[in-house]
Amino acid sequence: MGKVHQRRIINETKNKLADKISKAANVLLPENSGYIIAEPGEKTTKISQTQLSNSVDVTSAKKHFDLKLDFGPYDIDYSLNGRQLLIGGRKGHVAAMDWITKHLMCEINVMEEVYDVKWLHNENLFSVAQKKWVYIYDNQGVEVHCLKNLNNVLHQEFLPYHFLLSTASEEGFLSWLDVSMGKLITQFNAKMGRLSLMTQNPNNALICLGHTKGVVSMWSPNLREPVAKILCHGNMITSLAINSNGMYMATSGMDRSIKIWDMRRLKGPLQDYKVRTSPRSMVFSQTGCLAVAINNVVDVYEECCTKTIQHAYLRHNIARTINNLAFCPFEDVLGAGHDSGFSSLLIPGSGEPNFDALERNPFQTKKQRKEAEVKMLLEKIPAEMITLESTVDEVDINTFKTKLTARNSLQTVKPLKINIKVRNKIKKKTLANPSKIKEKILEEKTKEFVRALNARSKDEIDDGKSTRFGVLDRFQNKRNKKK
Questions:
Q1: What percent of the chain has pLDDT over 90?
Q2: Which ranges in 29-67 belong to alpha helices (H)?
Q3: DSSP class of residue 31?
Q4: Chain mean position to CA 151
Q5: 353 vs 151: which has the higher pLDDT
Q6: Banded model confidence at residue 461, pLDDT cuts 50, 70, 90
Q7: Cα separation, 397 vs 387, whole angstroms
């Protein structure tokens, strides 16, 4: 009875611990994390950033700030873990910083025009598309590489799982560069004119381009033609965005409309919205919020892909014209680069609250960063696997069945296992080695087995019982084969 009672106590303790862990997990996984709930008769668009910063804690309030700079308009980019910020001014100003602690990592002036900036696989390297070529710098502002094969680049996209830097140039050239080896995978002319809009599909790593004829084309480095085309608008596309899971795409045109498309079936539009004027930039957050920049106004829409909405979720006015937008990963923060600098805006509910530390860790140490870099290199996906339908997590059943059938059809014959025992006691007069004796006996037994097998197969052929030839038929004499 004592052992049974003890087991019962252990099981009860385990159940209580499991309940406690599940409750803690439910607290960390709320269904609606951090959205603003307005009172009856109140609109959330009337809430200003000053009111939001006064209503939240001190740590979150510090995430709302403005940088007044004189070398705009500015392009911005957040690192993959959301900790570092990279800004690049059109007049040559480039700076990298830890935007949470406000620690400036580097600040340089390249003395020529800057069209786009992009972080690479971690915060140690970033690329800058300058007036003529693309340059790669480290986090201290030291020039590491000058990529002269990539000239007159207007936009850049980095594919983290493939270690590819994709660029679109003013002459209409598309390029894919493997940054882990420094090798240019492919480069060709898309024959679509000036490539002014560019983004990537995180689901299948395809590059999506927006054109002046209202067409969105999708490109892979394995083909010199677009893998798919969608006619989205009847006129020029002004902005383009794809959500984090690659299910929906948002496009805007000169007709002052925003359309939502289904990327899984390449059909739509699912939703069609009319705005005041054509947007200049759009971006999706991790939770599906869509931020739209219209002149100097930022409108944020909540769940605009799955259902039709009537008004915006939040709205903020900036003194100057907005150049581009970017949501910070794992934070309720929206970054806006404009003519007079940079603005960090609080958008409650836009960031993913639960991050996987083995995938993207905002609080990683130097040792963890090195280990994560090695892991990313080991799990690197080759560029040949970039297709319209992602096959990275699937099994090629047809090829597997073919290999399995071919393996089962092979006629293999294993020789009998021969156990030989050699006495360890050796007389003084004999000089033979026991291992050599064992090898000779094993060789003789194997020859006898092969001769018996050949004789049996010959008898079967003569009797007409079997017309198949075994693998060991090559040991037969040529005379026997002629007969």
A1: 61
A2: 49-55, 58-61
A3: S
A4: 25
A5: 151
A6: low
A7: 18
Q: Please check the confidence at residue 334 and state whether its pLDDT lies above 90.
A: yes
d(CA 419, CA 407): 29
Kindly report the number of other CB atoms within 10 A of residue 48's CB atom. Answer: 13
Torsion sign (Cα): 62, 68, 71, 75: positive
Residue 86: CB atoms within 10 Å: 26
Amino acid at 31: E
Count of C-beta atoms within a 10 Å radius of residue 454: 17
Predicted TM-score (pTM) of this structure: 0.75
What pairs with residue 107 in β-bridges?
95
Backbone angles phi, psi at 229, to 5 degrees: -135, 140
Asked whether the beta carbons of 28 and 353 are under 8 A apart, the reply is: yes
User: Minimal CA–CA distance to 182: which of 130, 120, 122?
Assistant: 120
Q: What whole-number distance in Å separates Cα of residue 18 and Cα of residue 11?
A: 11
Which string of DSSP letters, residue by residue, matches 254-270?
A: TTSEEEEEETTTTEEEE
Query: What is the side-by-side order of every strand in the sheet holding 333-338?
Result: 65-68, 341-346, 333-338, 322-327
State the pLDDT at residue 455: 77
Strands of 215-219's sheet in order across: 197-200, 207-210, 215-219, 228-231
Distance CA 326, CA 373 (A): 24
C-alpha span between 152 and 133 (Å, rounded): 6
What is the tens place of the pLDDT at every residue in 284-332? 999 999 999 999 999 999 989 988 998 899 999 998 999 999 999 999 9
What is d(CA 476, CA 453) in angstroms, rounded to the nearest whole number? 11
Query: Which amino acid is residue 106, in one-letter code?
Result: C
Contact between 251 and 240 (Cβ < 8 Å):
yes
d(CA 432, CA 353): 77
What gap in Å lies between CA 6 and CA 445, rounded to an integer? 61
d(CA 137, CA 312): 39
